[in-house]
Amino acid sequence: MLDLDRFKEINDTLGHPTGDALLQAVAARLCTCIRDTALIARLGGDEFAVIEHMSKPVAEAAALAERIKRALSEPFDLGDHQVITGTSIGIAVAPTDGINSDQILKAADLALYRAKSSGRGTFHFFEPELDQRMHARRNLERDMRHALVSGEFELHYQPFVDLKSGDISGLEALLRWHHPQRGLVSPAEFIPLAEETGLIVPIGEWVLRTACAEAAKWPADLKVAVNLSPAQFRSKELVPVVFGALAASGIASQRLELEVTETAIMHDSEAVFAALGQLHKLGVRIALDDFGTGYSSLSFLQKFPFDKIKIDRSFVNELLSAKEESRLIARAVVRFAVSLGKTTTAEGVETKEQLDILREEACTEMQGYYFSRPKCSAEIAQMVGAEAVSAPVATRDWPAEDRRKIQSAAG
Ligand code: C2E
Ligand code: CA
Ligand code: CA
What we know:
single chain; TIM Barrel; Rev_trsase/Diguanyl_cyclase
């Protein structure tokens, strides 16, 4: 089974008549790749299937896939336009991968999906694990859609602490999913899929709104930190969504801290910089998460409008490593972050010994199990002495300066 790379793009930019002409030309080329006894079909859209009887299926199918790939990667002359496409191919072999047409088509489709996700212009054979993996993914995706509607998500909050005063300076919202069958599912498990499927956009909006509303109940000097995914920047809705969450909760923009990772901002840096710049102008604080694990260049750190650096847990871990080299690297990373003169938070602090070194290095904040694990909102409310707060303040009651910033940042 095969489909064309970027067919939708070609259709959208050059028009449907060109798209149709391309499909005909592709069919003609496919005919030159196969034996007379083979069968070619168009399954719909830009999807084609080839059925051929082979005595040595694996070797022969791979050779056929190569031929097709080569044939379709040559430019197509379609009257007014020269079009370049390419193809991804999934291969299933009967009777090993299925004994009826449904099973074979499904197996080939899964192999095609795999070929596409490992980079376009390749072919892939069906493997039984693909079926299980796809199944698990589909289930998780379906459950995640459901989770948002039926209120299975919850935020826990983990304090970060000022190292000089020992006071809590704010709390980071961390997403938790109570799955009705599987119990508590960790964010490491579902956030990558939520990013891939785009579900992180509505989930992220829910997180922002919930975290800001929760912060409205805390003493006003406490910040609330929210993690952002790259997909949220790509959605273009980020700035209005943040405005909305701030306005609905009534908290001052200076209390909201957005955590972004280096790797998130390396891609699409234009769009990300624009959005972060707007938010920063509004007074929202920006934190660089997992510092040290990405590839920030010095010039990048200068350009990027952030207020805080969060030193990744792995470095905090290595501060007391038995290996001298690891220990030196960890110290150098901490020292470098501190030397940039921003707030520096060490993540994942678990012991007094780690804490002592971080103090010595003049780190400004720490976060980790040594002080507190993430806790549910009721426990946090007790910890910070929250009061039940009346209805959130409307934007018109904000300080005039904040209102002006919102208006100018909203463009
Ligand atoms: P992160 O932003 O680096 O969050 C810190 C993670 O370290 C949290 O894991 C936290 O529970 C854990 N942690 C905190 N202190 C310690 C410690 O002392 N020792 C150890 N071993 N671990 C500690 P969690 O809650 O499982 O979250 C994992 C990741 O999932 C987060 O890493 C973040 O990248 C992502 N995530 C969580 N909530 C959200 C969210 O609302 N939106 C997005 N986009 N990502 C989220
Ligand atoms: Ca974080
Ligand atoms: Ca982190």
